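> call design_seq(struct)
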């Protein structure tokens, strides 16, 4: 299957199955507000754009929700939802097998979608319609899956709009209550932002009830007057809060070190392309350069910073200040040291200042390396342990990437483990834990209950 660029690669494996894609996946919806039609009687016109302006969800009106991202792809998915949604297709959809009707059920029907009452032509020739696959989930919910080209999906949307349907943004659709469980709704939104299969898999567990189930279990403990058990359950969830935050927000890894130790070359080696300018002159990098990649299956934002040294040049000095600010907020610091140069006072000061950093001795292709131990021949007791790389030759990069992933996620939560992944969830859990500590189980139960039900 060919996926469009705006979608998360996490769904390559998780949503490869057609039926799952059709029924459950909200990959990465896009804003179609005031979109101009590419063809037909309203082509390029403001009238056509207004026709496709997104509207608020109206339970008494049939809505059309785009389930896949805008742009070209192999397959695009639409959801037709509202009273009498199935009847809207009468006269529009013709099954290839006449014995296959659109009765509700778990089956896919192949056919052609065309509005015979409206003569739409393309390129001067009558358009025969679009080949589509339909699944009638109920009389009020029908899935349409067609060719992923922009013209094909826009043609279907235009036809449905003429039938009185309203175009509704997928996020508004979820927020309106298509998911009765708020955690499930939040997981569905977060899945659209998942950048790797591993983060998507954890979010999929939450979508399928892992976190909701854990909250219900804690509520049961409170109801049974087992406050201590409830408190431990909340603490267990909060212990995974930082991990959960990174399911939709990459871990931030900052490369630091003295000028000309190979930070830019190393970031290029880690991401696999030339993101940063590389030059032999010290101080080439002045601004903070960022690149997003995946290491050991986890999304990581790498930041290449200016070399750390005192400078009289105002631009370089500003670059060093930016680097210092990045280091203060990093999830992990990679401290690069030049393996081709003797251990010096500046190196010692940097390692003392950032003792928790992952030490990387770069440029081993230029250094004196012991062939037996693989370590620097002039190694001394003051030199901290670290990883040896030659960014320019690619040596040690695989091992370094694995070490970064291990430092960021020392222990991945078990399959089906409950993981809070939004600020709302974490704040609510912290409040509930406070109520438990204050011996107020009713308030704790009320707070936890808000995670499972929508207000009002």
């Amino acid at each position: 299957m060919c996926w469009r660029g705006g979608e998360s690669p996490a769904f390559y494996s998780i949503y490869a199955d057609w039926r799952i894609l059709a029924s459950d996946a909200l990959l990465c919806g896009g804003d179609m507000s005031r979109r101009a039609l590419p063809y037909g009687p309203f082509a390029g016109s403001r009238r056509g754009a207004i026709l496709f302006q997104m509207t608020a969800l109206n339970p008494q009106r049939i809505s059309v929700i785009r389930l896949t991202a805008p742009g070209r792809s192999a397959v695009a998915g639409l959801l037709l939802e509202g009273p009498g949604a199935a009847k809207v297709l009468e006269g529009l959809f013709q099954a290839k097998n006449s014995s296959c009707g659109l009765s509700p059920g778990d089956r896919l029907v192949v056919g052609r979608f065309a509005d015979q009452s409206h003569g739409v032509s393309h390129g001067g020739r009558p358009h025969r319609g679009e080949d589509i696959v339909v699944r009638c989930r109920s009389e009020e919910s029908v899935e349409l899956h067609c060719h992923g080209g922009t013209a094909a999906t826009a043609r279907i949307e235009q036809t449905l709009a003429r039938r009185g349907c309203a175009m509704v943004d997928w996020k508004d659709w979820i927020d309106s209550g298509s998911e009765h469980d708020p955690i499930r709704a939040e997981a569905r939104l977060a899945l659209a932002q998942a950048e790797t299969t591993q983060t998507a898999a954890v979010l999929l567990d939450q979508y399928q009830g892992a976190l909701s189930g854990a909250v219900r279990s804690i509520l049961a403990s409170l109801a049974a007057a087992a406050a201590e058990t409830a408190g431990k359950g909340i603490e267990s969830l909060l212990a995974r809060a930082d991990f959960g935050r990174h399911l939709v927000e990459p871990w931030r890894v900052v490369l630091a070190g003295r000028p000309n130790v190979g930070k830019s070359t190393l970031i290029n080696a880690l991401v696999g392309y030339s993101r940063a300018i590389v030059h032999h002159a010290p101080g080439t990098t002045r601004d903070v350069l960022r690149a997003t990649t995946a290491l050991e299956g986890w999304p990581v934002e790498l930041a290449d910073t200016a070399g750390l040294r005192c400078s009289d040049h105002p631009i370089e000095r500003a670059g060093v200040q930016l680097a210092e600010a990045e280091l203060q907020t990093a999830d992990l610091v990679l401290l690069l040291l030049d393996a081709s140069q003797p251990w010096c006072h500046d190196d010692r000061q940097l390692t003392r200042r950032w003792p928790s950093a992952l030490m990387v001795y770069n440029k081993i292709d230029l250094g004196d390396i012991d062939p037996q131990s693989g370590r620097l021949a002039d190694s001394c007791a003051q030199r901290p342990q670290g990883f040896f790389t030659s960014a320019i030759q690619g040596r040690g990069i695989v091992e370094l990437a694995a070490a970064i992933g291990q430092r960021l996620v020392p222990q991945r939560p078990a399959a089906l483990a409950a993981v809070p992944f939004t600020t709302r969830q974490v704040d609510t859990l912290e409040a509930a834990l406070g109520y438990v500590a204050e011996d107020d189980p009713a308030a704790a139960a009320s707070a936890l209950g808000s995670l499972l039900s929508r207000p009002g």
